[in-house]
Fold these 3 entries.
Entry 1:
Amino acid sequence: MEVLRTENLCYKYEGAPGPFVLNDISLNIEKGEVVCIYGPNGSGKTTLLNTLCGLYKPSSGKVLLEGKDILGIDEKERFSKIGIVFQNPDDQLFSANVFQDIAFGPMNLGLQEDKVRERVDESLEIIGMTENRDSPVHTLSYGQKQKVAIAGVLAMRPEIILLDEPTSPLDPDSETRLLDFLKK
């Protein structure tokens, strides 16, 4: 079953000189499929991810989520279906401590407090940071911040997870743990 599709997707930063960053991209992503996008710095990988989740509006073409134009889907519904982990966790984390940051998304879904706590604890277990549950975010290493950003997305339980270089700041054990989880 197709969950995400682009049709002739193009994107150009407003006012930027030169060609499109994304030019005529058509792809189909099926449920359960794992897709990796490789390319050099500046090739448009991050721009593509931001466009796929609806953060950027295509210059032309379409992004379809379950057959519907992503721009016509309510933001709350869209972000409950698609989770994105940014390349830099400092762009994603904003709460005072780990628990609050991971709990933010599930709380905004309107879940009851016990369900929020359950999702936070489960996500912390997956990323191997249970002992940091109450740690202030500003005291974490860069790799730990990346884990918290990943846990925040996992706690939302989206159908689609977009990850922008998620393993680059992780130690080998954490990288293996994350990749094993994603395979499941």
Note: The chain has a mean pLDDT of 93.
Entry 2:
Amino acid sequence: MFVQVVHNISDKGAWTERLAEFAKEESPPEFTLHSSVTSADGTKAFCLWEVQSVDALSGFLDGATTGAAQNTYYAIDENALATSLPRSTAAR
């Protein structure tokens, strides 16, 4: 399943530190990060993941971003009109 995450960044310094730490580590093999972007003002970031469940992803990301951002998770309706997603890694 694809899950969109909106990170509401509350501490830009802590967020930058968390990203640096995150870049050094590998995500669990069952998680695929397809894209991530940050708003120009640095108050929000958006990530698109392919995972087994929202709960599994939130358990992973909420711990990694504690004190830096509040995360909101959206399971994506892959069949909705105007939805454009990368090819699923599950099909590979």
Note: The longest strand covers residues 2-9.
Entry 3:
Amino acid sequence: VIYDQMQDGQRADADLVKALSATVGFEVRAFEAFRTGDQDMSPQIATIRKANPDAIFIAAAAPEVIRTVNQIREIGMKQPLLTGWGVFQDTVAWDGTKGAVKGGYTWIAQDLQHPSSELKKFIERYRSAYSDEPSTFSVHAANGMWVLVDALKKAGAISRPKLREALATLNTTTPLGTAVSFKNPPSGENVSADSIVVVRINGRATYDVV
């Protein structure tokens, strides 16, 4: 495992991999951290190379994930690469590594290659507007904006306390067909379950479902 210790989400991904090792049945042979903005990951990668793992989990976002992948491949390490939610599916990762993320594994919450009718319309509009392929991040950003709009409508005013109160019990479906509901207490987390699609990257924004 190699991870960005400055990013809460990436650090949580790395910690989860470590915590699940006994349950799932694998061994973490190296657990190496770097900091956002670091340019040279060679000390961490050298430790990982010495451990000779079967695969490498990279918990990082662009641009650090690009540097890490490139430096791993530049020294001839050919192990399969894995990462957290959607990172390798993003065209930024493919372009920045010149396709070195090919064969890497990640997971996404919607199968963009077999979309629902609502999601298909969004993908077509995105391609037209940006002349590029959307990532799973694009979809979640759109869903987030629609959730905010619905919460503001429910709040009845542009007020942080009222917005927070509205979100606490929000139950809505976005124009993409994504069901979103919150319940607070106890946690305030989104309690609607997303589907999980595990994918192996085979091209720029394309993948095989595992």
Note: The chain has a mean pLDDT of 92.
